[in-house]
Amino acid sequence: MEEPGTGEPADPPRPRKIIHVDMDAFYASVEQRDNPDLRGKPVAVGGARERGVVAAASYEARRFGVRSAMPSVTARRKCPELIFVRPRFDVYREVSLHIRQIFAEYTPLIEPLALDEAYLDVTDNLKGMSSATEIAEEIRARIRRETGLTASAGVSYNKFLAKIASDHRKPDGLFVITPRMGPSFVETLEVGRFHGVGPATRDKMNRLGIVAGADLKAQSMAFLERHFGKAGGYYYWISRGVDARPVRANRLRKSIGAENTFLEDIFDLAAARAALAPIADKVWRACEKNRIRGRSVTLKVKYADFRLITRSRTGAAAVACQSEFEEIAFALLEPIFPTARGVRLLGLSLSALEGEGSAAPRQLAFDLSPD
To answer: Distance between CA atoms of 169 and 316, rounded to whole angstroms?
Structure first.
């Protein structure tokens, strides 16, 4: 490759130094830190009632197969000794802010993914440290010392591999994937471990004979795009250890949403409208607080048999007021009824956001379910 206009060979691009920091069982670990009686015991953060859902599980609970997003009744069946703790999101946010202040002492290029994880680009860092591994070790030590919590970290030359690395030696681990080892390391991984490959995509890949990274790498771009659409290009490159995505500081929120799981199934429209109104109010108040508007309204409906559907409407202009937001939401809701199956959950979200006053790491979601 030549330098433009000189005929001289250009220097190869300098490899980036990316760290992915992931707190270990964050919500549950905070609860165990603050309540010594919970330490060493299986803990689930979430609702203990029949319709509750596990928001986070301690490592002691995970040994029994308890996982986040699992219905509480299932979690209790897997682990009869499971201790449920109500979430304290104000505390989790406070701890998360403290951790991000630590990050900010090393680099301004911080891309939060959630309260408990973030990417850091430390290629050019504020400490002038040449080793990303040393930075990761220092950050993990400070998190432990200042918060009493443990974090795992992955270090690599791109975001995909840094995230893979942070999961490699959890909990309380550090793993480095160098440019030399990256492509061969990816070949050995099961595709289900790839960030961006969910259970449905993994199963589809397995049916196509793609089980490990080497199998994915063996496929052509045309084959992957034919079977996976636009994502095919992403899979083609990550199977080769290539990911050009930059660490983006202050990522914009994609949507604002809220949902509620009901104690009893809903069968008629009037009851559903009454249940949807406080959800709409919660979302709109969040929009007001963050000084944002959006054009797309999406209704989420989960039936008693756990079948999930969504219905959306997108306008040419942003929704102007709460009454308009509720009107659209109720219009999306009406065709769902009557139903013989019963509705166990309703949710609303606003997307295609405009005029955001502040950035956020991901969808701002609220669970209104009572305990």
So the answer is: 48
- CA atoms lying within 13 Å on the CB side of residue 190: 9
CA-wise closest residue to 25 among 102, 92, 97: 92
**All residues at 6 or more sequence positions from 74 whose CB lies less than 8 Å from its CB, including other chains:** none
30 close to 92: Cβ distance less than 8 angstroms: yes
Residue 81: active-site member: no
pLDDT at 370: 39
Decide: 285 and 354 in contact? Cβ < 8 Å: no
CATH of 18-23+90-176, one of 3.30.110.70, 3.40.30.10, 3.30.70.270, 3.30.1330.80: 3.30.70.270
* Tokens found for residue 333: 């809701």
Catalytic entry in 31, 60, 111, 117: 117
Res 366 pLDDT > 80:
no
Please identify, in words, the CATH class of the domain defined by 26-88. alpha beta
pLDDT digits (tens, 9 = 90+) for 16-32: 999 999 999 999 999 99
Q: Which of 69, 73, 41 is nearest to 54 (CA)?
A: 69
Q: Bridge partners of 202?
A: none
d(CA 352, CA 181): 40
What's the CATH superfamily of 182-238? 5' to 3' exonuclease, C-terminal subdomain (1.10.150.20)
- What is 255-367's CATH number? 3.30.1490.100
The pTM of this model reads 0.71
- Look at the block and give the residue holding tokens 């308009």: 324
- Alpha carbon dihedral 196, 57, 89, 252, in 10-degree steps, equals 0
Can you read off the two tokens belonging to residue 181?
């080892």
The pLDDT, as a whole number, for residue 367 is 43
